[in-house]
Write a structure and sequence with these properties.
eight-stranded antiparallel β-barrel, two-stranded antiparallel ribbon, alpha+beta, Cyclophilin, 2 domains, 161 residues
């Protein structure tokens, strides 16, 4: 009887050890996977963001995942004087043409950054309906100070990665 009880205890100990090992490996793999996911998210965030400095105010731009945005980033950093148009946008004609994939947007949001044609960089600081076609480049998520920063008339803007 004592022998059977001892075997039973050994089986329980073995079962507990195996179960503990499986649980440990599960948590270890989850921790490694989370570390990889967080690293990828951070890298993607860094890769799809650029900055604008407008009259001392800095804005973070989340870039589209397209050839136009990538080509613009390859041109950075750049300082440009953007011209005023219609009380809702600033524009600048680039020295180089960028790849395009224009679409009738329908509605522009304040903070949208688009390409008109293949060489006109546009920063919108007001929201409105439009019938024009643009290629999306990115958008400023926090536009609370954007209209004040761009001011009236032409404005100097630093574009950088």
């Amino acid at each position: 009887m004592e022998y059977e009880k001892s075997n039973y205890n050994c089986y329980l100990l073995l079962l507990g050890t195996v179960l503990f090992w499986f649980i440990y490996k599960k948590f270890e793999n989850d921790a490694l996977n989370n570390a990889v996911i967080n690293t990828n998210i951070n890298n993607e965030t860094e890769d799809n963001v650029m900055k604008l400095n407008i009259n001392g105010s800095e804005f973070e731009v989340v870039l589209e995942n397209n050839a136009t945005a990538k080509a613009l980033v390859d041109m950075l950093p750049m300082d440009v004087e953007m011209s005023e148009l219609n009380g809702n946008e600033k524009y600048y004609y680039l020295d180089e043409n960028l790849p395009t994939n224009s679409d009738r947007i329908g509605y522009i949001n304040a903070g949208d950054i688009m390409l008109y044609g293949d060489d006109c960089l546009v920063l919108f600081y007001e929201s409105f309906n439009t019938s024009y076609s643009y290629t999306k480049i990115g958008h400023i998520e926090n536009t609370s100070n954007l209209k004040t920063a761009v001011g009236i008339g032409n404005v100097n803007v630093r574009w950088e990665k």
